[in-house]
Amino acid sequence: MQVYTRTGDKGQTRIIGMDVVPKDHIRVEAYGTIDELNSLVGVIISYPNIEQTVKEELQEIQQLLFDCGTDTATPHGYMDYRTKKEAIDWLEERIDAYSDIPAKIESFILPGGILEASMLHYARTVCRRAERCVVSFQNETESNPNVLKFLNRLSDYLFVVARLVNHQMDHQETFYERSGKVFR
Length: 184
Prior knowledge:
- By secondary structure, the chain is mainly alpha-helical.
- The protein has a single domain, classed as Hypothetical Protein Ta1238, Chain: A, CATH 1.20.1200.10.
- It has five helices and two strands.
- Strands 1-2 form a two-stranded antiparallel sheet.
- The protein is elongated and about 50 Å long.
- The chain starts with 11 loop residues before the first strand and ends in a 16-residue tail after the last helix.
- It comes from Facklamia lactis.
């Protein structure tokens, strides 16, 4: 596979099926943001305070994100979709398994904590952006509805795992205090 094609030199890119679209097309924005999220998950996997089970889950999520990107990059009907309901079910199982480990929260928490948890929170926000891009894209054209559902669950998973990592490292979460302490 050749790395450069020169198609991008004119602000265009070739999608699956060989159609050429502008690089700022909503389809490209959607799968590009999914790719950004996938790269960020790869960074998180490299951190030392992520336990092996979670690293393996994150590696599986990278595979599933690649499926989401492929589905988004592929015109409807060109090939079978890759993102399946089973991937969403698996995320829900993982969320349920981890949700009760940290203390129950009664208010909003501020994103942060140890580096790994902070990066998981950051990945959650990139996931939400990818989700918004996919919504915009799916408003324009028919696409795999499981991609949006997967991203929605994934942002919940990333939130829960960020809390789990802080808990495992005995780091207290910071709760949101309306208007902060400075203005009281």
